[in-house]
Protein ALP1-like (Chionoecetes opilio), 352 residues
Amino acid sequence: MEMEKTTDPTSFHGAYRMTPATFDELLALVGPHIVKQTTNFRDPVGVSERLGITLRYLATDMSQRDVARHFCVGRATVCKIIQEVCQAIWEVGAPLFMAKPTTEDWKKIAEEFNNQWNFPHCLGAVDGKHIHIQKPALSGSLYFNYKRTFSTILMGVADAAYRFIYLDVGSYGREHDGSVFAQSTFGKALEDGTLLLPQSPNGDLPYVFVGDEAFPLKPQLMRPYPGKNLSDKKKIFNYRLSRARRVVENAFGIMVSKWRILRQPIIAKPEKVDKIVKAIGVLHNFMREKEGLEVECDVGSESGMTDVQIRLGANMYSGAAWDIRENFANHFSSPQGSLPYQNDIVQRGLNI
């Protein structure tokens, strides 16, 4: 059984969130890994239909039961197909579209951040979001978050072009950004020095990641200055950091705009949710490469995902981290590092 493609590209794109040509590229990539052998009892669901079932579920508000009715297959079959296809998308696509950066890759990412968002030596923007789910059985309060809903946490690091460099999903909803980041493989690799990060020729301005106030200040992770009555220098730093940090917010917004299953609680066990979200992350990067940024995507809108709670004590820092943030703040207020419009924006209290 194979999926019949509509002759109307607009209708096809509305149903599967990609053009027929892009669908065929994705099918060629994952098809060999999701094919099923014919049995003596019945013909299996064809590879194109298996991919179509999965994309239709991820891209729309349809439940698995509705998808099963639409494709005229059993609900249990749909559930199994979605998990197998999502696993294949992650295993095949992650090494191609979310590969671990080399030292040269990091330098290119930093150059893009400086050119597009005016933050030198920035390697990525970090943030975490709640992925809302149904209450897992016998889970107690592990997935119960501060919004009084149930969720698992998605931690992402995005580059300057809204692509995800790294994704980690599966932490309990009751946790906060700082602890999720510290426990993630990315956070551990950052602490261990195993990310192959480049060395800055300017010791005062090392290569760093940027995050919001939910993250701790570290030598390789910059966060805003806290408080309201800040000096102009600190306000300018916060503005410049905000310009770079919003990239990851926009990346989440683009992802939710296209893959609308993220707009509502996902009805699946946590381990199955993890596979779904990781596959969506790969599809996000795949689509950014193949079709770019679409006009329909509401950049910056992440309806369906909420911010992770800020923990008390997140503003703790070392002296080295404080010095690095001060160096960036001084640079942004200097003739060499300032933007011609930043003082006006700060004085008007905009975008801080």
Remarks:
- Residues 103-347 form one domain.
- The chain is about 45% helix and 10% strand.
- The radius of gyration is 22 Å.
